[in-house]
Design the sequence.
């Protein structure tokens, strides 16, 4: 399944969180789409799936996973992928995404999105696995850049070179998290614009915007604050470079009332409108 750039523009969305299920159904907030965390709905029946079915009748949905572990040296978890495929058949999302990371090895789950060593060896490994996943799911996936706090001595290329090669060779798309680029740039002392400028312009299909915790000498990517001014500025640069890209606010902790997040979605909408981009 190919995601045409213009046709795949959904506008300005929000991460779907259980705190807001009732509010969404009662008040039909003015957001264009929702992103559902795949793993929250990969069970037969239950309340989350009930709400997702209801919400998907009113809004476009995209699915975002955290457990594919595309970079791990463990074999791909085919049971997980089958459950993911079944959920996609039910929800009919506009697309399915996960992260360019590994989450465990040797059967041990770190419950964290760990960065990869950016070497030729891991590049080959990841490209093969992305192709395998896409063949199995019968759709192209989006991969998101993770924020990171460590680098590897055996990396031989930058994250953006690695990420671009994966997209090109595996024929997948980017979910660019603008906040994650800002966080990693701060933690590893690179220019976030170097990152943005190196990403192939035609493969970006979604942006994430989120807040974080700045501890002075490092940033922890907590997703528990509003988006900061510097990240909004970087979003403006991303719009200049990539144009019409579906954008969403991602809040994972200290989740405020729905209206607060809808206001942040509106902020993104206004910045994009200022650049001539609207749904
Ligand atoms: Fe994200």
Sequence:
């Amino acid at each position: 399944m190919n995601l045409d750039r213009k046709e795949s523009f959904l506008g300005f969305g929000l991460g779907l969180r259980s705190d807001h299920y009732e509010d969404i159904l009662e008040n039909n907030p003015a957001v264009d789409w929702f992103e559902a965390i795949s793993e929250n709905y990969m069970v037969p029946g239950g309340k989350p799936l009930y709400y997702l079915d209801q919400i998907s009748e009113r809004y476009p949905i995209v699915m975002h996973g955290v457990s594919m572990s595309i970079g791990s040296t463990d074999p791909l978890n085919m049971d997980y992928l089958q459950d993911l495929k079944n959920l996609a058949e039910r929800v009919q999302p506009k697309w399915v995404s996960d992260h360019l990371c590994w989450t465990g090895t040797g059967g041990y789950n770190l419950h964290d999105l760990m960065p990869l060593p950016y070497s030729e060896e891991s590049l080959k490994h990841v490209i093969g696995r992305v192709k395998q996943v896409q063949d199995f799911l019968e759709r192209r996936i989006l991969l998101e850049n993770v924020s990171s706090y460590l680098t590897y001595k055996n990396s031989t290329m930058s994250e953006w070179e690695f990420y671009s090669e994966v997209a090109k060779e595996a024929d997948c798309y980017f979910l660019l998290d603008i906040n994650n680029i800002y966080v990693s740039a701060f933690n590893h002392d690179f220019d976030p614009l170097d990152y943005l400028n190196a990403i192939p312009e035609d493969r970006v299909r979604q942006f994430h915007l989120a807040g974080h915790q700045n501890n002075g000498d490092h940033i922890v990517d907590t997703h528990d604050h509003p988006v900061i001014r510097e990240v909004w500025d970087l979003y403006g640069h991303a719009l200049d470079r990539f144009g019409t890209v579906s954008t969403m606010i991602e809040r994972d902790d200290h989740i405020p009332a729905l209206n607060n997040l809808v206001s942040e979605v509106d902020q993104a909408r206004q910045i994009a409108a200022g650049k001539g981009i609207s749904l």
